[in-house]
């Protein structure tokens, strides 16, 4: 297994924090942490202190992505590996460590997406009071499989995958291929979740992030969320089933115009024995998700 155990958190940079505050509770069903303020929202979706941080900024895009490693020894080893590969690595300052609610961290810039990646030790857990969804939801499956997944844009998918495989121990779950053209996306795992990180090659994409996925505990969470997002006119795709991880899901817009996916019942994988798959993006390969191929 690789040094990265799971996706810990994603931070958004936003020009409209008040929109995110109401979106978090009304649409996502997340709690807004009481230690939030008018420059920073901590959004809670399980027993972790937060899964999404939204920071006030000059643009609407991803801010940084946090990956959990086992302990500080693993962090030291990752720092040495990245440094030996010529990647500039910096340890988190005491202020950053406190801000992220972790015990230790390092960060580097992903050379393929331009996104700041953080490796973190021991994100704060609050098992009590329990997470209570702020609307009618069963909740989210996270735990050992982490937050869910994050999908970023990169121009060279094979090089991006190579970076995460060789330096951080990810495995490649599969490639989504456009017949006669090449790969549109690469999906990677760091635990039993089919993919925690994926890259898509969409020239001219307006942001560095395409979407985040949270796995819901109930099919009704997907259906009820679809109705709610339809009423708010923020759906991006119809419900459908994915070819690779078999998730039943749909996509909807965040206030920052990138997307959120709520998905139910994905297959899990055995990372120790996985062999990389590929599939071809043809019109007949799966059902639903109308709008997905146009989504940026
Ligand atoms: Fe997804």
From TrEMBL:
Origin: domain of life: Bacteria
Signal peptide annotation: none
Pfam families, per database record: BphC_D1, Glyoxalase
Record domain VOC: where: 6-122, 146-265
InterPro entries: Glyas_Bleomycin-R_OHBP_Dase, Glyas_Fos-R_dOase_dom, VOC_core
Keyword 4Fe-4S (UniProt): no
Keyword Oxidoreductase in record: yes
Alphabetized CDD domains for the sequence: BphC1-RGP6_N_like
Keywords: Dioxygenase, Oxidoreductase
Any one GO MF annotation of this record: dioxygenase activity
Name assigned to this protein: Biphenyl-2,3-diol 1,2-dioxygenase
Species the sequence originates in: Rhizorhabdus histidinilytica
């Amino acid at each position: 297994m690789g040094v990265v155990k799971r996706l810990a958190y994603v931070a958004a940079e936003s020009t409209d924090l008040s929109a995110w505050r109401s979106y978090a509770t009304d649409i996502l069903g997340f709690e807004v942490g009481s230690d939030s303020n008018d420059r920073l929202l901590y959004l809670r979706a399980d027993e972790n202190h937060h899964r999404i941080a939204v920071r006030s900024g000059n643009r609407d895009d991803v801010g940084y992505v946090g990956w959990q490693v086992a302990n500080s020894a693993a962090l030291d080893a990752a720092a040495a590996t990245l440094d030996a590969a010529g990647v500039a690595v910096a340890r988190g300052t005491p202020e950053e460590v406190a801000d992220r609610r972790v015990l230790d961290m390092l960060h580097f810039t992903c050379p393929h997406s331009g996104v700041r990646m953080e490796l973190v030790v021991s994100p704060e857990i609050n098992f009590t009071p329990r997470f209570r969804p702020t609307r009618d939801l069963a909740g989210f499956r996270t735990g050992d499989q982490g937050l869910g997944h994050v999908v970023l844009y990169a121009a060279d998918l094979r090089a991006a995958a190579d970076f995460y495989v060789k330096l951080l121990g990810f495995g490649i779950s599969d490639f989504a291929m456009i017949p006669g053209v090449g790969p549109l996306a690469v999906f990677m795992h760091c635990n039993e979740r089919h993919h925690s990180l994926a890259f898509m090659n969409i020239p001219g994409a307006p942001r560095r992030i395409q979407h985040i996925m949270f796995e819901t505990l109930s099919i009704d969470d997907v259906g009820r969320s679809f109705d709610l997002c339809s009423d708010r006119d923020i759906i991006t795709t119809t419900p459908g089933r994915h070819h690779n991880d078999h998730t039943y899901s749909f996509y909807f817009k965040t206030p920052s115009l990138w997307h959120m996916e709520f998905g139910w019942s994905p297959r899990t994988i055995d990372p120790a024995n996985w062999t990389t798959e590929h599939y071809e993006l043809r019109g007949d390969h799966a059902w639903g998700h109308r709008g997905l191929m146009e989504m940026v």
